[in-house]
Amino acid sequence: MRVDFPFFADLANYWPQIVRGLRDTILLSVTITITGLIGGIGVFALALSPRGLVRFATQSYISLFIGTPLIVFLFLLYYGLPNLGVTLSPFVIAVLGFTLNVSAYNARYLTIAYKGLDQAELESARAQGFSLFQVFRLITAPQSLRMSVPALTNQAIQNIKDSSIVFLIQYIEFFAQMQEVASRTFLFFKTYLFTAFVYLLLVSVVVLAARRVERKLAIPGLT
Amino acid sequence: MALLEVKNLVKSYGDRNVLDGVSFELEEGEAKVVMGPSGCGKSTLLRCLNRLHEPTSGAILFDGEDVTDPGVDVRALRSRIGFVFQNFALYRHMSVLDNVALALRRLKKLPRREAEERALQELERMEMAEKRDAYPAALSGGQSQRVAIARALAMDPRVLFFDEPTSALDPIMVREVVTLINRLYLDNVTILCVTHDLNLARHISDRVVFLDRGKVYAEDRIEHLLARDADPVIDEFFGGED
User: Fold this and answer.
1) ipTM score here?
2) CB-based contact (8 Å) between A146 and chain B?
3) For chain A, which residues make up each domain, given as ranges?
4) Does B227 touch chain A (CB under 8 A)?
5) Which of B38, B40, B130, B134 is deepest in the core (most CB within 10 A)?
6) How distant is the Cα of B135 from the closest Cα of chain A, in angstroms?
7) By residue range, what is the domain housing residue B113?
8) CB-closest option in B78, B87, B92 to A222
9) Interface mutation target, options B93, B109, B153, B161, chain A, most CBs of A under 10 Å
10) Minimal-distance CA residue of chain B relative to A218
């Protein structure tokens, strides 16, 4: 496959490298979006626990990860863990660090949506005889998730953009590959313009998909 | 033996007794209304009876079983009591049919088709079958209340609890819902209804338990209560209606 835009033709020789980088960026972004969503739902469930101690621990976790830069935790895991005799691959560390961070943000979005739910619905489910877990699974989670689609998709977009920082822990994804292309060709302007263009394209795909999901999951009469 | 027997029920928040030794009985097939001024503990009473709120002391015998016993299966108890809420509390992310079928599927473990057939029967009884695919946001207050009642009846409860079933409705809807509950009353459905709507009380109940400041102030037929002479508590509540 060739790049036919004349402006970017100089980059054509590096196409395999660019595609490899793109593949790794997509792999990381998709992975952390999925693990961050699952983690976020789990943290959200714990945030509603009837036990005060569990709620306190969960809120502390959310505050910790929202209140500190992600890169600190990536460095902690990448450079710090080997001190304890644990060495993980850059990909595993990226997934781990992002999942911890994204789960906290997603849990926060879901908690905000939860505050907008009609508490009488939850009480009526309890009155019907549903367990706390069933109320969560059948009422709280579906409604909170559907109310949070815009925030959750913003997070997915953020994940694509933020994934570029993992070059700092030696995970060679799209941005890292483009840095190498730029330093080999000295075509800094073209290379980084192309890089920005590709990120925009990726984000646009997510935005379009998100709109479809939003329409499909909207609760009739409410959104 | 009465279906429901409440003995000396107390519910305290801090040092405030919201319910202060309430006792009454509800026979099978009987319809009883609990009335009283705002804050007298009416809604708390209903919620203590199915343990949505934990009673502080006293006994609640339902079908011969002490509901306050720590070993009681609270979820099984609740599934035998239909509870219709003031604001209907329909699950707004589900269609009308799913609202009614949900507990049949998840609690009674009926297969989907069977649960939906059963749900549809109750919706037909409430004249709401044609709205089976509608979502709660598209329903009027009266229609929502019909679905809420269908949802409660679908589980074949021993008793139906109503918590202020008309207070969220406009006057036309109120008439519709009063007629509906009156029909259940005439069908001998056992009903315990908390309300301050005198008209509703007249149409759906045999007797009224009148609560005042957490205690049973009087229990009588509604016309007898209204005929009481110079009773300041009753007079103030009914505002001179008769």
Assistant:
1) 0.91
2) yes
3) 5-217
4) no
5) B40
6) 6
7) 93-141+150-156
8) B92
9) B93
10) B93
Minimal-distance CA residue of chain A relative to B91: A121
Q: Between chains, do B75 and A129 touch, taking CB under 8 Å as contact?
A: yes
CA distance A196 to B68: 65
Q: Any chain B CB within 8 A of the CB of A157?
A: no
Cβ contact B107–A219 (<8 Å): no
Q: Which residue has the tokens 């792999």?
A: A27
- Which one is the CATH code of A5-217: 3.40.720.10, 1.10.3720.10, 3.40.50.280, 1.10.10.10? 1.10.3720.10
User: Contact B95/B142 with Cβ under 8 angstroms?
Assistant: no
Residue in B33, B80, B67 with CA at minimum distance from that of residue B208: B33
One-letter amino acid identity for A155? Q
Tell me the pairing of strands B57-62 and B4-13.
antiparallel
Query: pTM here?
Result: 0.89
Percent of chain A with pLDDT over 90: 87
Determine the 3-state secondary structure of A46 from DSSP: helix
pLDDT of residue B230: 77
Using CA coordinates, name the residue in chain A closest to B104: A128
pLDDT in tens, A19-72: 999 999 999 999 999 999 999 999 999 999 999 999 999 999 999 999 999 999
- CA dihedral sign of residues A15, A17, A20, A22: negative
